Amino acid sequence: METVVSGIRSTGNLHLGNYFGAIKNFLKMQHTHRCYFFIADYHSLTTHPHPADLHNTVKQVLVEYLACGIDPEVATIYIQSDLPETAELYLLMNMNAYVGELERCTSFKDKIRNHADNVNAGLLTYPVLMAADILIHKAKYVPVGKDQEQHLEMTRQFGNRFNRIYDVEYFEEPVAFNFGTELVKIPGLDGSGKMGKSEGEGNAIFLFDAPDAIRKKVMRAVSDAGPTEENQKKPETIENLFTLMKTVSKPETVAFFDEQYNTMKVRYGDLKKQLAEDMITFVAPFRERILELSNDNDYINKVVKQGAEKAHESARKTVEEVREIIGFKRFG
Ligand code: TYM
């Protein structure tokens, strides 16, 4: 059985981008593959979360993950920091990651641009920690959105380089995975191109959003003055609204508004109203389940404990083998 690994940073609630980019694929794979899904709380430290908030954010993301339908009885779901082996593998892999290639990574360049006051070494080596997450279970598939493609390329690079340096065929090449073949990028509502938790207010629709919050955000979504010619190519902001509609609305609804756009009869107010209602219908069962699970501490504790135990088995094995390959030997 092939192994699947994927993670979500614990920096905020899950949004539709996370769901359609990554989670939807996990859900399909959990019954057919050996799946490890984790909450990346080590990764979240690059932004220095307040100690009083860290635990609750991790718990919230865990609950939301479970509410999506990840079944801890078949898949292994764990918290990244419950697996210190990941930190050890990260340290070891850091020795084969070159500063130049890390500095060229797009996500690092973005961070330098947007958070110039906090360019820490953890940000630079973020792709190495991600590679450790993936290689520690010797994953074949990694369900992620388009934004993670380059990190997967780097993971392959680090794994291959390890094999070359030690003249072994230890790590296989993991691939970014999506059932629809193309990796997905779900746009945000503010015209910024990508739905994300660290983008501006109003950009993301969260699985935990209440109906009114969704209506407000969608009605404020960026649009334009309307088409000026029949069948014209849609500008990016409008294309984004249609892309979002395709994720939550019925194909007939999308076809209807597409026709309205092409014949210059479209009213963005109506389109947004429909989009908001379809989003509300889509997230309602998630929201309900999140509320239900949030109070079930016994269940949550059980899931975390069970996940850590299962994840340890595979992580310990990899780290022991890697140590042996590198040449560490126990005394006595
Ligand atoms: P994160 O927490 O930013 O996002 C989690 C997952 O959601 C996907 N995603 C999107 N997909 C499509 N459209 C969007 N607008 C969108 N926004 C987010 C991401 O591609 C990702 O799959 N570094 C990772 C977490 C991580 C990880 C790993 C993932 C740490 N180690 C190992 C896979 C394997 C991150 O920050 O994802």
Top keywords for this entry?
332 residues, mainly alpha, Rossmann fold, Tyrosyl-Transfer RNA Synthetase, 2 domains, three-stranded parallel beta sheet, two-stranded parallel ribbon, 55% helix, globular, binds tryptophanyl-5'AMP
Please explain how this structure is put together:
The protein is mainly alpha-helical. The chain folds into two domains: 3-184 and 296-326, HUPs (Rossmann fold, 3-Layer(aba) Sandwich), CATH 3.40.50.620; 197-291, Tyrosyl-Transfer RNA Synthetase, CATH 1.10.240. Helix content is 55%, strand content 7%. It is built from 14 helices and five strands. The protein has helices at residues 16-29, 41-44, 51-68, 84-94, 99-103, 106-114, 121-124, 126-135, 149-166, 211-219, 236-248, 251-262, 268-294, 297-326; strands at 3-9, 34-40, 76-79, 141-143, 175-177. The strands form two sheets. The protein has a three-stranded parallel sheet with strand order 1-2-3. Strands 4-5 form a two-stranded parallel sheet. The longest helix has 30 residues, at 297-326. The protein binds tryptophanyl-5'AMP.
Helix content: 55-70%
Number of domains: 2
Spatial gap, N to C terminus: 37 Å
Radius of gyration: 21 Å
The ligands found in this model are: tryptophanyl-5'AMP
Question: Which percent band covers the strand fraction?
Answer: 5-15%
Can you name the CATH architecture of the largest domain? 3-Layer(aba) Sandwich
Structural class by sheet pairing and helices: mainly alpha
The shape is globular
Question: How would you characterize the largest beta sheet?
Answer: 3 strands, parallel
**Widest beta sheet: strand line-up:** 1-2-3
Oligomer: single chain
Q: Output the helix-strand order.
A: EHEHHEHHHHHEHEHHHHH
CATH topology type of the largest domain: Rossmann fold
**Mean pLDDT over all positions:** 95
Classified in CATH, the superfamily of the largest domain is HUPs
CATH hierarchy class name of the largest domain? Alpha Beta
- Number-wise, the strands total 5
Weakly predicted, low-confidence segments: none
